[in-house]
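wait is this the right file?? whatever heres the structure
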């Protein structure tokens, strides 16, 4: 950290299945405990911590419940349990389609928080309240014409290959809009943002756009390279991803001529598969 402390950490760890295959949830949670401990040390006195975490409905909703229990051993205060709705889901005809992504919000101390608004217009009228002896209607009292972002996010498009922000080969990319929302709510310009699991570099790019500083890492050098190239692409061309193209176009043929091999194939369910560039 070079003596610096972060005001915000946004972590999106690999899920149990991908990271530990058959090794069980307790080992996964012990590993999480280590990077949560590291986060505590890297975060400033008043700061925010967000963690994207899976809840596998085919496996006791793990690792979410055990992760939440593990968090009780820390002095972080839980503040919100956010759900982001995916447009596409997975599952069989015999169960509810799985379309949710869980996001936990904790704080250390008492950090800055700025309410965020969606693009969804307010249409419901008629919540009357008397203000200074005058009967007022909710739209008159509003600070915004649009709806405030609550703890269920239904207004964010899941990344898919037609979107400019798409980074081919990144199986777990989060929408830029979701990370920008977190950054705008829980940090100020020039603040330092942390992300221990860079992957496609969404937190780094969102920090650049929102004029925050960011430290990010990934255990896989390929994802580190992708993260660097995504920032360079934005700085050079103002683009936020490669859409149908890919980050290694200088060295490798275009996507349609590339051989993509699935790796880390999950044992059950129809979950994302990592495509590794050859
Ligand atoms: C779910 S992805 C993060 C997605 C990211 N939020 C995005 O929008 O692109 C998890 C990433 O964590 C990385 N990873 C796995 N184990 C790690 C470790 N021990 N330390 C750092 N990174 C790790 C993986 O290589 C993978 O790129």
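ok assuming it is, sequence goes like this
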């Amino acid at each position: 950290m070079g003596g610096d402390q972060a005001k915000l950490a946004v972590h999106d760890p690999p899920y149990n299945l991908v990271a530990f295959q058959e090794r069980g949830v307790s080992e996964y949670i012990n590993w999480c405990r280590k990077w949560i401990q590291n986060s505590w040390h890297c975060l400033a006195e008043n700061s925010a911590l967000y963690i994207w975490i899976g809840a596998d409905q085919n496996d006791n909703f793990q690792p979410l419940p055990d992760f939440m229990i593990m968090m009780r051993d820390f002095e972080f205060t839980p503040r919100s349990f956010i759900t982001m709705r995916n447009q596409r889901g997975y599952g069989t005809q015999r169960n509810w389609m799985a379309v949710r992504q869980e996001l936990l919000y904790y704080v250390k101390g008492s950090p800055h928080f700025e309410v965020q608004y969606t693009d969804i217009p307010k249409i419901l009228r008629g919540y009357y309240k008397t203000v200074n002896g005058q009967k007022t209607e909710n739209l008159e009292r509003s600070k915004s014409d649009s709806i405030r972002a609550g703890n269920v996010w239904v207004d964010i498009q899941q990344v898919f290959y037609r979107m400019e922000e798409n980074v081919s080969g990144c199986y777990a990319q989060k929408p830029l809009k979701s990370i920008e929302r977190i950054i705008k709510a829980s940090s100020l310009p020039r603040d330092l943002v942390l992300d221990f699991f860079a992957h496609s570099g969404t937190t780094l790019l969102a920090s650049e756009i929102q004029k925050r500083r960011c430290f990010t890492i990934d255990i896989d050098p390929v994802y580190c390279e992708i993260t660097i190239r995504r920032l360079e692409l934005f700085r050079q061309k103002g683009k936020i991803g490669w859409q149908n193209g890919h980050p290694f176009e200088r060295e490798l043929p275009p996507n349609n001529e590339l051989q993509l091999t699935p790796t880390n194939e999950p044992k059950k369910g129809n979950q994302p598969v990592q495509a590794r560039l050859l």
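Residues 12, 14, 19, 170, 172-174, 196-197, 199-200, 202, 217-220, 223 surround S-adenosylmethionine (CB under 6 Å). so i think its the right one actually
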